[in-house]
What we know:
By secondary structure, the chain is α/β, with parallel strands linked by helices. The protein is built from 7 helices and 7 strands, in the order H-H-H-E-H-E-E-H-H-E-E-H-E-E. 9% of the residues are buried.
Amino acid sequence: MAWNDAITEERNDLVFEGRNKNYGAYQIRRNYNKALMVAVGIGTAVVMLAVGSHFIYKLVSATEEEDIPLVNITTVDLKDAPPLDKSVPPPPPPPPPPPPPKQIETIQFTEPKVEEDVKEPPPPQDEVKKTNVGDETKEGDKDAPITDIGANTNTKIEEDDNQVFQVVEDEAKFPGGADALMAYLRKSIQYPAFEKDNGTQGLVVIGFIVEKDGSITDVKPLKEVNGGAGLTREAMRVVKSMPKWTPGKMQGRAVRVNCTVPVRFTLK
Length: 268
């Protein structure tokens, strides 16, 4: 009997004689070989799975790389250009531009007006029948084709009476000038309570139009303070309540002018 071998069946029967053999150390020693084989099998399977997955991954990666189209780069050797063949004639020069049209002979036709001193009297009817009628009297070919009559530069272009100007000859002014405007704003503007309690301050720019009669219209904010809606409303209120300005002028005529007023709200 191999007494030194703790898992032999003869030793276990002798050691556990008269004891419970249904569980405990007896069953552990009896099933030791079976448990050892199971453990070795599981370990071997894990190792094989790890090694196999590595090879499978490399195989799949190689397949994906083969599907990627390759870009072929070709090296081209640049050689010297062949000499020019002097026997080949050069291209012909471009054709000359066409000559300008002949000057048309015309007689200036002056509109008849009742004046005491007429500098350019209307031409006789006989000459009008023989020659083309134009803005001035010029020598030329009577039979030349008419290419361009031209525009009457003396015609006046009517301006839009409601046009709003950005820059004018005489600027629109607040009564008393810029200093009076700043004094009016400081006196009239009240710091909104909500923005004052929250410490909101900054620059608000208000745009408006000074009409031809000096009244203020189209008041709108051009720059606002983030979170300061009350500041914008207060600045617009004061701008709308301003007295009439001196209107801006172009060529001595009152016109509508775009203006801006900056208002900086600061807490001390």
